[in-house]
């Protein structure tokens, strides 16, 4: 059963000559009112009980919306009323017909008229107004219903542009415990005047549910600058979906305030800033470039950092010019940002600038330059990178090693072995050689023949990790003489107790040259096991030259030699 019925609409009362009688109602002017069962005829004989206007329903006082989530005592009746309201809204829509576009109140200006103006809100006729008020009242009475029924009731106000509809939607947005109802209230408020939308946006911005905050941004923000502060705040929302929605809204709706766009870019960071930059570059590229050029000259280093990040890679010449200028900035943060931006602009001047940046006084700038150069196929850049193996900053050294590992080659291994001669580069070069494994092993073994001192120790350290004592010990029993000889040199260079123990086995090798090599290497260590092995060789080896070499080794260790 519908909650509102038709009543004939009376025209304005007009004064007649001295009688004061009312004019007859115009035919066909029915309207909808609450509580009547049949249309009134407007005749003098009509039943007074049916023709009398129904009093307005009392306004519900302000209260939390709703007091709780359980069904109220009048739940069934209110649910039926909500269903009736939906039917009534459809009936009202069908009966509305064509309405005038004027928003001017209808006023009777005839002489002697004592009637007041009968206002019409917008293009809504009286029957529409009465229907809206009825639906609003149903929504108000639904406060104690379950959430799904409150949602159905509130949905009857979609598209309704009446102040009371916005009032009840604001109450739902403020007080309702269901996030679904609050989202529905935002849909109702999307058609509200700007001031009401801003009030609703302020409420939605503080909602605990991300979906409600995102819906507020999506539906309540127009092209007015007044909403900008909410959008800027939302860019820092802990929920990525809300922050992304704020970026989309800022770029696509608030178009008249470049300062707001720049503030939004500064507030965002990381992936959020990157997504915002992509949207801006696609939607407003000219404005973005204008902002970049303007703030590249700012006194604020943060502005210049952001300007460096916005170097336009689509225009190679402009990017090269802008990026190289920022590489000379007095702020290290700006220079580092410029290096990151120029990584996407592989022109010859840019590459030269990056090579120079690898020696920048700031570790942060050197680190960014190294990260860029290791990605490029630039032989000259490799030499520059090798020079940073001795960088005082451990992050720079680690990045060089990590980057060059991916470019492992025999040629690079040769360069690294040469770099072992430089004390500043030795540690980094050794670490990189170890990581190169199959390329490094034969070159390291070959290098043992003519390297001594600290370089030999570095090679031994690398071999200990690349080959290992166990593998070298196995090679001592190889039928290949050269392989046994190389194993002796490697074990001697490694010099650990485990390596020394295996080296002693070579004193019994059937090859005289290998025994001689082992004696000479053992003669450089004061390990008690080495001294015992040399003494035994001096006493027993059948080759006189090997025995004499063992005695010399003992004397070098200040061991008294008393052998006949």
What does it look like?
The chain has helices at residues 48-51, 75-96, 126-141, 147-155, 163-175, 179-189, 194-205, 210-220, 228-234, 240-252, 258-267, 270-283, 285-295, 301-309, 316-327, 332-342, 348-357, 363-373, 379-387, 394-405, 410-419, 423-436, 440-447, 453-466, 469-475, 481-494, 497-503, 512-522, 528-540, 544-556, and strands spanning 4-8, 30-34. The longest helix has 22 residues, at 75-96. The N and C termini lie far apart (131 Å). A two-stranded antiparallel ribbon has the order 1-2. Mean pLDDT is 76; it is low at 1-125. The protein has 564 residues and is mainly α. Helix 14 (301-309) runs parallel beside helix 16 (332-342), helix 17 packs across helix 18 and helix 22 runs parallel beside helix 24.
The strands making up the biggest β-sheet line up spatially as 1-2
What value does the average pLDDT take?
Answer: 76
Tally of separate helices: 30
Shape: elongated
Low-confidence stretches: 1-125
Q: How many strand segments?
A: 2
Q: What is the gyration radius calculated from CA atoms?
A: 45 Å
Bin the strand percentage. Answer: under 5%
Distance between the termini: 131 Å
Taking the sheet with the most strands, its summary is: 2 strands, antiparallel
Structural classification: mainly alpha
Helical content band: 55-70%
């Amino acid at each position: 059963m519908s909650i509102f019925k038709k009543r004939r609409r009376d025209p304005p009362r007009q004064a007649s000559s001295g009688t004061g009688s009312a004019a007859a109602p115009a035919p066909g002017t029915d309207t909808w009112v609450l509580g009547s069962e049949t249309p009134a005829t407007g005749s003098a004989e009509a039943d007074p009980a049916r023709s009398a206007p129904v009093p307005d329903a009392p306004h519900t006082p302000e209260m939390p919306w709703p007091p709780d989530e359980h069904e109220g005592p009048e739940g069934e009746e209110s649910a039926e009323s909500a269903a009736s309201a939906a039917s009534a809204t459809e009936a009202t829509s069908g009966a509305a017909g064509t309405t005038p576009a004027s928003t001017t109140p209808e006023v009777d200006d005839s002489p002697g008229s004592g009637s007041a103006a009968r206002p019409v809100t917008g293009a809504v006729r009286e029957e529409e107004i009465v229907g809206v008020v009825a639906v609003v009242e149903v929504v108000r009475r639904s406060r104690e219903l379950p959430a799904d029924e409150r949602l159905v009731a509130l949905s009857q106000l979609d598209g309704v542009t009446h102040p009371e509809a916005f009032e009840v939607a604001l109450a739902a947005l403020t007080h309702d415990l269901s996030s679904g109802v609050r989202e529905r209230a935002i849909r109702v408020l999307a058609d509200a005047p700007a001031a009401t939308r801003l009030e609703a946006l302020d409420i939605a911005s503080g909602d605990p549910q991300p979906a409600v905050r995102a819906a507020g941004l999506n539906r309540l923000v127009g092209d007015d600058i007044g909403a900008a502060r909410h959008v800027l705040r939302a860019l820092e929302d802990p929920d990525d979906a809300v922050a992304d929605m704020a970026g989309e809204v800022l770029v696509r709706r608030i178009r008249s305030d470049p300062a707001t766009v720049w503030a939004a870019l500064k507030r965002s960071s990381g992936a959020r800033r990157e997504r915002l930059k992509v949207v801006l570059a696609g939607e407003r590229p000219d404005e973005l470039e204008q902002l970049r050029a303007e703030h590249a000259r700012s006194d604020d280093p943060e502005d210049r950092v952001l300007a460096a990040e916005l170097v336009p890679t689509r225009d190679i010449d402009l990017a090269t010019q802008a990026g190289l200028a920022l590489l000379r900035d007095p702020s290290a943060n700006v220079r580092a940002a410029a290096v990151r931006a120029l990584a996407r602009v592989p022109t010859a001047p840019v590459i030269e600038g990056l090579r120079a940046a690898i020696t920048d006084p700031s570790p942060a700038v050197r680190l960014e330059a190294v990260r860029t150069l290791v990605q490029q196929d630039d032989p000259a850049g490799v030499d520059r990178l090798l020079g940073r193996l001795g960088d005082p900053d451990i992050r720079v050294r680690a990045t060089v090693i990590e980057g060059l590992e991916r470019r492992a080659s025999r040629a690079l291994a040769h360069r690294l072995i040469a770099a072992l001669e430089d004390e500043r580069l030795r540690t980094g070069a050794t670490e990189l050689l170890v990581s190169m494994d199959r390329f490094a092993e034969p070159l390291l073994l070959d290098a043992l023949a003519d390297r001594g001192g600290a370089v030999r120790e570095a090679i031994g350290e690398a071999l200990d990790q690349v080959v290992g004592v166990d593998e070298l010990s196995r090679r001592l029993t190889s039928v290949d003489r050269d392989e046994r000889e190389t194993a002796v040199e490697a074990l001697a260079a490694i010099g650990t107790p485990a390596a020394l123990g295996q080296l002693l086995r070579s004193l019994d090798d059937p090859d005289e040259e290998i025994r001689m090599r082992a004696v000479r290497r053992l003669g450089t260590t004061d390990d008690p096991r080495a001294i015992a092995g040399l003494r035994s060789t001096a006493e027993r080896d059948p080759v006189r030259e090997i025995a004499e070499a063992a005695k010399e080794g003992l004397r070098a260790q200040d061991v008294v030699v008393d052998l006949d």
